[in-house]
Amino acid sequence: MAEPDNKAPQSEAVVPPEEELVASPAEDANGEAAQPEEQYCIFRAGRERYCLGVLEVDEVVEWPRMTRLPLAPPFLMGVFNLRGTIVPVIDIAFTEVRRGDLPPRQVVVACQRGSNEAADVRLGLAVDEVVGTYSTSEPLLKEEAPREVPHCAGMLRHGERLALALDLKKVLETFPVGVI
């Protein structure tokens, strides 16, 4: 004897009209449009933590074979060859006395994108430790940027810590390395 079919008839999926498929901007708990999420590379140089937007960071390399330049300013540690490109390396923590037996361990290679006429400028930042990346939709704390650090665009709060957010344009003005 066959058992009765108790299954309800399946309905077809309803496809919303095209105008309903457009995603609306995300809203926070107050109903305001949420800020887009930004991602930062956080690193330590000397006693300070710094950060750059990940779109400004080309790569992180282990400490390379460095060529020192005669009569270079004290912040210019030298240059190195990165796959055919000469990259100057600056020490943004040069005002701190580094122990001779603890040289920087890595170089964060950053790129200041040029305009139509100007070429991209690559710059290496000597760092002691790359902490990692951090994503947030919170804006930088621009009013808390220390005035004695002219290349700082604000502060980034990551967890319970703060990092100085670098502005590459200001870094290149503060630490002029010219065209090498």
Structure commentary:
With 180 residues, the chain is mainly beta. It has one domain: CheA-289, Domain 4 (OB fold (Dihydrolipoamide Acetyltransferase, E2P)), CATH 2.40.50.180. Helix content is 6%, strand content 38%. Strands 8-1-2-10-9 form a five-stranded mixed beta sheet. The chain has a five-stranded mixed beta sheet with strand order 3-6-7-5-4. A hairpin with a 2-residue loop joins β1 and β2 (48-53). The protein is globular and about 55 Å long. The model is unreliable at 8-25 (pLDDT under 50).
SSE topology sketch:
Blueprint: H1 18-21, E1 38-45, E2 48-53, E3 57-62, E4 76-82, E5 85-90, E6 106-112, E7 121-127, E8 129-136, E9 152-158, E10 161-166, H2 168-174
Parallel strand pairs: 2-10, 5-7
Antiparallel strand pairs: 1-2, 1-8, 3-6, 4-5, 6-7, 9-10
Descriptive tags:
180 residues, OB fold (Dihydrolipoamide Acetyltransferase, E2P), 5-stranded mixed β-sheet, mainly beta
Short summary:
Helices cover 6% and strands 38% of the residues.
Counting structural domains, the number is 1
Q: In angstroms, what is the radius of gyration?
A: 25 Å
- SSE ordering: HEEEEEEEEEEH
Name the structural class.
mainly beta
